[in-house]
Amino acid sequence: MDLAIVILNWNGKNWLEKFLPNVIAHSENTSIYVIDNSSTDDSVRFLEQNFPHIKIVHNKENHGFAGGYNEGLKEISHEFYCLLNSDVEVTENWLTPIQNIFASDSQIAAVQPKILDFNKKNSFEFAGAAGGFLDNLGYPYCRGRIFENIEQDHGQYNDEVEIFWASGCCFFIRSKDFWAQNGFDERFFAHQEEIDLCWRLKNSGKKIFYTGKSTVYHVGGGTLNKQSPQKTFLNMRNNLSMILKNMPLINGILLVLFRMILDGFAGIYFGYKNGLSHFWAVIRAHFSFYGQIPQTLKLRQKNQITDFYEAKWLVFKNFL
After folding, report:
1. Among 94, 114, 246, 278, which is disulfide-ready with 274 (CB 3.0 to 4.6 Å)?
2. How many angstroms separate the CA atoms of 154 and 302, rounded?
3. Helix, strand, or coil (residue 123)
4. Rounded to the nearest 10 degrees, how much is the dihedral formed by the CA atoms of 9, 14, 16, 22?
């Protein structure tokens, strides 16, 4: 398998020090790259001194998750990419099931493993869990995690199934499919850019898969923790842009209008629970979304699938 494991780094020396040796130990005969997103700590010097065999790609500025990978991957030529967060612990033989999935069907563009919580290793982790879907209001969720409700791992998701989106924390993709979609939407900066990419892949006839035969452990919150107003802003804005870009146009417009009403209630809830900065983050997200609308419409593909969701009204279960 002509695979490049690619870790995006921004001021993450501590994560590299903790987890990179583990990745190296369990990824024999695999090329490993670190894309440095213009770090201001001594990450690069640490890599050069302790891991001289690791290839480093230097971005001239911090482009965020989406732009950082887009820029850095231009310098990396392999058939497959594994986009791996720096705060992920991998396990023995984690790559073999992924390779087998890709070999089984050339239409499979992206794959994710089972993602468990590094700090609670018998529980699924927030970012991806056992494979992602959207409900019929466009809210993302995962098998093993719906909003803040986290399941313990009892082997219930040890299957290999088609999913709607794969988590960016450990995201395997064919390089030709990545570039056929022009990579991530850099306007997203971070959060839900992988869902948007998977949706575009699905619209173009590709498949996204999950395998429970490969396991990784994710710390999570290494860049923005769950309580960050900026995370609220990015998730709200990016989700609306993603819906308008990837759904059939009339359906997308109607859903966005309804979602904006729900976002208003969510903003009040977030403001009450987490502080006024989160309420303001929702308002900022909407105005930023308005500014993106012209470009979002230009980025729409010719084909949009209509069966993008599983028939669940999760928002009412979890917010009302």
Report:
1. 278
2. 42
3. strand
4. -150
